[in-house]
Structures are given as C-alpha cells and as structure tokens.
User: Fold N-acetylneuraminate (7)9-O-acetyltransferase from Oxyruncus cristatus.
Amino acid sequence: FQGDDTCEYLLSSGRFLGEKVWQPHSCMMHKYKNSEAKNCLIDKHIVFIGDSRIRQLFYSFIKLINPQVKEEGNKHGNIPFEDKSAAIKVDFLWYPEVNGSMRQRIKSWTEGSVAKPHIIVVGAATWSIKIHNGSNEALAQYKINITSIAPLLEKLAKSSDVYWVLQDPVYEDMLSESRKMITNEKIDAYNEAAVRILNSSSRNSKAKVKVFSVSKLIAQETIMKSADGLHLPESSRDTNAMILMNVYCNKIMKPIDGSCCQPQPPLTLIQKMAFCFFTLSIIGYLIISLIHRNNYRKNKSCTDLESGEEKKPAISTPSISTLEMLLHSFCKLGLIMTYFYLCDRANLFMKENKFYTHSSFFIPIVYILVLGVFYTENTKETKVLNREQTDEWKGWMQLVILIYHISGASTFLPVYMHIRVLVAAYLFQTGYGHFSYFWIKGDFGVYRVCQVLFRLNFLVVVLCIVMDRPYQFYYFVPLVTVWFMIIYATLAIWPQIVQKKANGSCLWHFGLLLKLICLLTCIYFLSYSQGTFEKIFSFWPLSKCFELNGNVYEWWFRWKLDRYVVFHGMLFAFVYLALQKRQMISEGKGDPLFSNRVSNVLLFISVVSFLTYSIWASSCKNKTECNELHPSVSVVQILAFILIRNIPGYVRSVYSSFFAWFGKISLELFICQYHIWLAADTKGILVLIPGYPMFNVLVSTFIFVCVAHEISQITNDLAQIVVPKDNATLLKRLLCIAGFFSGLHLVSAIQDQSRH
Assistant:
C-alpha cells in the first residue's frame, strides 16, 4: 500500500498481458469508445508539442475521438484537429527541439488572459541528439533549456494537466545511417536530465508536471516491431493514447472498469447509517458476552467450606438468547461487510484487468473435475435429482462459472454459450424444485414464501446498502426471486391443484396442464412485447428494484435470455412425479431408470443430443443470433445431462461430496464473487498479493470461500429469527420489514436529491 494515487502507477509502471493488452500496476484501465471520449473532452482544448514521436501520439489520440482521421498533412509542421459536434480542439505543434522557440510558445499561455489549453503533452530529444551528432554540449544545452521551461510548465500545471513524455528507447540495429548517433545510452541521459530538473523545484514537490514514463516500458517490449527502429508500432502508440485518456477522463467519466485515477467514492448517508448499525451490533454483542461470561463464572462449581466437597450450581448454564444470536450474526456480518467495502470501494487493495487464455480457463476446469471425482460417496437415496445430486450439480456448475468469470472467458463465444446453459440449468432447478415442493406438500403458506424470499435476498439487500449498488445489479437474485413468485402464483391461484387432490381424478392433471399452458402463453407474449414488459416493471415500487442506469432494459434482457427454462423445469417435475406415482420408472439402488432396452436407447439419444448442442454452441459466430436461439434450445443439453446422470443406476447412486459442499453455498459464492474475488463490480480481479498471480488467487479464493460459507450460516441463523413460524409474530415482523424498506426508500430519496 503506497497511498491511493493510482495515476502515478498508470503513468509509470505496468506489464503486458499477452502481446497487446497493457496492464498498469495496481489498477484497471478502461477502453474508451469514441462516444465516451467525446463526452469526456467536450469543450476542451488539447495541445501536443514536440517531434515526430509526439505527432504519432497526437494521431492515436484523435483517432479515439474520430477513427476516420487519416495521417495526412505536413509532417514537419503544425497540424490542427477539431470536432465541431463536441467542440473539441486538438492541436499538434511542431517543436522538435527543447529550445527558445518552444519556451516562447509555452510562455505565451502563461501571460495575461490568454486561453490556456486544458491538456498539454510535451516531449522532445531525439532531434537534438541527431542534429548535434550526440555531442555532450547538446546535452548540456538541453539541460539549460529544460531548466528555463520547467517553471513555465509548473505554472501551467496549476490550471491545466501537463505531461512530459520521456523518450522511448530505439532499436539500434534498424536505425538508418543518418540516425545511428541516436543510441539508448544517449536517450537515457536525456530522460534522466528531464526527470531530475522537472521534479527538482520546491514548488513542484508533488510533481505537478506529470512525467509520462510508461511509454518507455511499452517501447522496450515492442520497439523491435518498429518499421524504422525509431517510431513505435501502431498498437503501442494506441496504448499510450489510451493511457493518456484514462489519466484525464477516469475521474470525469468514472467507468466501473477504469479504477486508475479514480478517487475513492464518498460514503453515502445510507452507508454511514449501515456502519453505525454494525458498530452498535458489535458493541452490543461484546457487552452481552461479557455479562454472560461473568454470570457463568458466578454459577461455576465452587468448594463447600464445611464439607470440603464441590457444590454444583442450582442453575444450569443459560442457552444463547435470541438477542445474543441476533447480535452475534450482525457482529460477524459487520466485519465481513467491512472486508467487502475495503476490497471494492476503498483504494486499499489493487485491481487488475482480466485477460483470457485457453489455458487459464481449461486447466482449472480439468483440475476441479478430477478433484471432485476423488470425493465420490454413496447417496442416501437413489431418486432422480435427489438432494445430494442437485447440490453436486449446483456445486460444479458454480465452480465452472467462477473460473469463467475470473479468467475473462466471456470473450470466447463457445465458452460463453456453454456457461449460458449452466445459468439456465440453475433456473431449471428453480422451476423443478419449487414446483415439486408445492405439488407434493401443498404448502402455500406465508411462512414458506417468506423463508425462501429471505434466504434468496438477504445478502443482496445488505450489499445494496453497503456497496451502494441497485438491486438489479445482482441480476441473478432478482431473476430467481421473480421466477419463484411466478411459480407460487401459478400454483396458488384458484383452483389450487396439488398431488393429493390430483390422485383422485385425472381431470386435475389436465387442469394443471392448462395452468402451465397459460403461463407459457404469458411468457411468450411478454418476450415479444418489450413495451408491455417495461411498463409493468416501470411502475413504482417495482421500478426501484428493477431499474439499472435509469431504465429496465437490462432486466428485460436478462429475463428474456432464459425465459422458457423455468417452465421446462416445472414441466419436467410434473412429468417425472407423474411417472414416479404410476411406478413407470425404477429408482432402486443400482437399477436402470427404465427397462434395459429403453434405457440404452434414451442414453444413446441423450449423449448424441448433448454432443450436438456442444457442437452447435462451439460453432456460434454471432452472439446476438445465438442468444436468440438459446432460450428454446438450452433445455436440450439440460435434459440430456439429467438422463445421462440418472438412467444408469450405478451413476445415480453416487455423488461428489466435494461439489455438493460448494452447491450448498452456491448462491453466496455467486454473489460474493462480485466484490471480494473479482473487483470493480466483476470487471477486474482483486489483487491482495501483487507480483504473485497464482499465490494471490489461492489466498483470495480461500478467504472468498470462507466468507461465502460464513454468510450462508448467518443467513440461516437470521432466517429462523426474522421469519418465525407463528403467523401473528410473522405478521409483526413483516410490518417491521415494510417499515424498514419505507425508511430506506425515504433516505435514498433524500440522498439522491442531495446528489443532484
């Protein structure tokens, strides 16, 4: 930890990920689009002063504003650029030497009421080396000239952003005869002089003139690809221009994936209130613990002075009270949320961009799959999709999704399409599990609904408060919450058809199928009527939950992407439970699900279907087109997997306890990764131990998994307290929760008003 000035890191250090992706030390760089660059630089005047190398940087910079610009014009003259739509003016001024002419130009901006450029980028030296044949006298004169310019630059730096670009190394073997005197030794001497003089003034103690030294590091890796040994290849100068854009624009645009040069966001009123609440919980728990400990000591066995024997206390050790359990849970949660905040809101830990390679994704996948096989155990029951099996399924899917996120594999379309199936499979289990419960148990009570909603949403609500993020940001939880409510409404609305009632007459089965057909029709209609969908979720208070960046488009996109799979899960549960009731399947230990012939045929069809889907997903060329087909075809691979996993009796009778353990905390893992495993709201990677990527992943993963497991336990403990079985008490709790959210909404409105 060296303070929160990540601009210094961005301008001076970093490394290449692969061949073209530059990773600054400790922070993340945003890739600016033309529209973003224009919004940032609107009404700005930028000036580049220097030689042909600065001219290269000038062209790369203006191409970020307008990619259609061509490198034309007088190479040894001034080049103007203007974007009238955004009132942006960028000028290149040809001053190849640090001399009196350059000084006079810079001085003109410091005098009187002359309009000063907002950004000034200066650099020159190679012409001085070339013209004077690398003489020591030229270096001495360079020092004198830069000494006279330095105070002027410092004066400009008080109102403008001033950057001095150090000279890049050259590739001496490729230099023409007329440039042979430009050696790396000479360039280093000129750079050393510039750095020493620019940072020597007492008025410039904080280096107001920013030294752009990172270009040297980039050039060291790429100068051998230069066309003439002097000028950088296009990709390298584009990287320099992007760094320059990040230095200036990140503090204005505040991109999520651009942590460099972004100040720590100020604490909101809600965050301050949350901090006070958790602090009071910790203090309250410590006080109660001390009181209980003192009481326990008083009631301990003591020696009877008359008989010399131990007397046991009449009162037994008191059990943990509800208040103590509540404070204990909030105490742990407060410490965990502090860690969340420090990881992803404070500039305490470093963050890095993701970089995808096939090995970074597939090697960990193979490793965890092999590891999972070593923890194979027998299941307690051998039914299709039994509890151990569904936990195992959730577990390995969640681990694959985590590896997918940290490796940045979303850029590789075949992997993306397969991960979409895993997300769909989780929703399939949502439909299957909740339908099975309501169908078999017939329990449509408020207690069941509140328990499910609390377990799904508790962590996300806390994170929305602590991390200052909207509910829809954690899109998966709103998705499973809404689908749970849809399943509940479908089955709870009159007539309530459950298994016990349907056993009396087959007509009830047709009634349920009619309900499912109505549900499918509604889903189909909403998926092709974006306007209606957005109107429904734009009504208050739904809009507060489902808006992201001022609209509900993101919510519509997420819902539409897997719109049919929950219905498929419900339909599968209905068919499976009907077959099970009529004893048309065999679920004994070691027995195939159907007769040998039917089992073999279904197994063959399942394997072919599974592979066919994978081949189709791997051949996808257009993400938009594949996403359109995904909702209808993802069920093919899901059903194929279920049949492959359950038809052979010996496969159905075993499970991986390793994967099942992760499956039990899969929801917590999915949500916690946003801030304490990944960083910058999943856009980057959290770096606790810089310089050792593998060791860093091991440490951050260990903490991340422990935290997710602890939060799962806290959620379960609080669910018992907050959602009691007694209806009268539950109603009171619901009124308290409604009051809490009303207060939260009021504070949020006050907070938004103060921001504006």
Remarks:
- The chain has three domains: 6-253, 349-723, 727-755.
